[in-house]
Amino acid sequence: MPTFTVEGNQFVYNGENVRIISGAMHYFRIVPEYWRDRLMKLRACGFNTVETYVPWNLHEPKEGQFNFNGIADIEQFIRLAGEIGLFVIVRPSPYICAEWEFGGLPPWLLKEENMRLRCFYQPYLDKIDAYYDALLPRLLPLQCTNGGPIIAMQIENEYGSYGNDKRYLTYLKEALLKRGVDVLLFTSDGYSDSNLQGGTLLPDVLATVNFGSRPEEAFGKLQEYQPDKPLVCMEYWNGWFDHWGKAHHTRSAEDAAEVLEQMLKLGASVNFYMFHGGTNFGFYNGANYLGKYESTVTSYDYDVLLNESGDITDKYIAVRNVLARYTEIPKLELPPSTPKKHYGEVRLTEQTRLFDSLARLTEPVESVYTQTMEELGQDYGFILYSTRVTGPLSQTKLAIQDVRDRALIFLDGVYQGVIERNTHDIRPNVQDNDIVLGIPPTGATLNILVENQGRINYGYGLKDPKGITEGVRLGLQFLYDWTIHPLPLNQLNGLEFRTIRQDEAPFTPTFYKGKFHVEEVGDTFLKLTGWTKGVAYINGFNLGRYWEQGPQQTLYVPAPLLRRGDNELILFELHDTKEAIVTLQDYAELG
Length: 591
What we know:
This protein is globular. The strands form 7 sheets. The protein has an 8-stranded parallel barrel with strand order 4-5-6-7-8-9-10-11, surrounded by 6 helices. Strands 27-15-28-33-30-31 form a 6-stranded antiparallel sheet, with no helix packed on it. It has 10 helices and 34 strands. By secondary structure, the chain is an alpha+beta fold. The two termini are 49 Å apart. 47% of the residues are buried. 17% of the residues lie in helices and 31% in strands.
């Protein structure tokens, strides 16, 4: 069977020299019905390889319970790529970064208080072994050595930017080898000295580097450590991702194409990160923390060759023109753009309040102290903490120690304000933007609804439990005796809705429901003008988060999520809306 090997500074496949022109595309960010379309567009652009991460948290959502169906059917994605004539690079590291929730690590790892991540800590390694025992047998038949399209696998991901535990890296390498992986193994890192010293297994394992510009500088540094191997940019950042509250990132097609040409002139192989980004459906967006917590938006458009809905961009054309000078572009008929539909306004006519629906959503937990999501076995979504506070008590500062990530505060059902991770000062002295509570002689019920806005996916803050991590204080005094409602919001079928009335009392987090009719199914975009912050569901599928602060103004709705006839839309709105109306339009709005 064919082999893919390194011979000097060349890659050799089945006895012939080959240069890898690859594009990253994540099966878990694309509905399966569109996998072939996106892969065909990759091949038609002149690429010969597709690269994908493998998110552990998607495939083992609960410890010991594995999922390889639907959007998690990695085998089908790889087989499709092979049928289209693409090589496949798989990055099955336990950690993937990828702006994906917790960098792909499953949140149940954090149930163990002393868990140590990404190092030679045996309880962590034992859980990786159990995961690999389920994952790798599915990949082995798809290796090129067994007639499949997989030519290479990654050991760890940008490890040098996190640690330097070579014993850990070696363990992961051996974990792959002893389970039968016999394709080329590699590492990928930034090109600084510390990254290449900490993240590689030189000289035994091929090292690759990640960057977005200055290829001569990057490859020059790589050659100081690895002078006699192929030059590979494993992540060419031709676009970038967005955080809530910041401008949409863009990069010109001309600049991206120019840097590609510089790499090709150097004889390098390249993997575009990304070729097609897709969508962070559900609660799977990650977050960054480098002194400030910043949550990634639902769209993973990334401003790359195919946009979020899979359409060809100017960057696609510019890159294809460059590749045509260095490789033969296959004579393929490009798939047409998927039809985009404007379905118009949808009025949400029914609602049910969160606080009235708790019994239909969750089972309460009684606890002396506040517990995190992970301690309670919860993965994503929201968590509600409730306690009874005795009175009288004069105006006293409320302190949450610590909030992960954003809390809505209610006293006897009345909204008091928001406490956010970045701005909350837990010191007892009162500040201008603090929430100060006065408790009447009869006492009051305190409700704190905390949103997990995405676990950190990169850097030193990776260990990021959600909810309330230590406790809640009024002044210096900790509050005890809590009722806790885990709210993963992964199943809304039990909710009971009623018709919206115009005389509703002041706002409280509310589920809104409406129906719309579709004659002809197509992609569409959910526009939420007048809504504040929340989560959207189409026919029970979690499209992801929306937030009025942008830059994302619409949520992508792929056609396979719709059906001819009646469709159901549910919004979980945390704050308020001017009018319970949305629009389904035929174009996206970012920025």
